[in-house]
Amino acid sequence: MKIVWNLPNVLTALRLASVPFFIYLLAQPDIYSRWIAFFLFAAASITDLVDGYIARKYRQETELGKFLDPLADKALVIGAFVTFLLLSAQIEMWMVACVIGRDMFITFLRWLAIRKGQSLRTSVFGKVKTAFQMLAISVIIVSFLIVSLRERQEINAFYYAGRDVGMYAWDTAAYNLGLFINGSRDHSVAYALASFLPYYFMLVTTIVTIISGLRYLFTNYKLLLPPYGKVPMSSSTS
Hints:
Helix content: over 70%
Number of strands: 0
Shape: globular
Order of helices and strands: HHHHHHHHH
Largest sheet: none
Number of domains: 2
Strand content: under 5%
Structural class: mainly alpha
Radius of gyration: 21 Å
């Protein structure tokens, strides 16, 4: 792979390098660190749009960029969701597992396509999935910003208490949504929104991610059929 450090590739590399700092700041309990994490995520999302635009407009697409760009996106998204899993009781293990599993599956299909000398068929639905993921991450980070640490712990405790009595996160989120709609709440509007919005945004994002993975499977299923290596040219015998 030829190393070409043009502007799009530099922006992509910076986005990838920002991921550990984003995760560290997001995991901090103080509001200032999480605000910085939010702006860092916003900047990374903008560079994702900008570097692609520059690369296409000025014909600066390179093999390095094609390798780094999806790697940076996956690192940012998976890093955010795994951190949310540790911080919020509304984010469930199966949701994050679906996001990671889909990316691993697409990576496997890409490897098969390269091995077979074929192209991986993509669709606009992949971009829809990415948009939903970025929106969900933004909403969940904002939900951390609009409530205090004590209120966040209280929301988590409410979800954990629901699990202890056999309720699913879906049930607890629906209960909180019902309280918000009926106006029966003892807390602020921000607290009420933070008690159910992260769950629903993550749920919708997970469903879209699963659909995206299934679409890749249906349009590229032939890659899963043998042979799995490049078929050598047969030599004629006399």
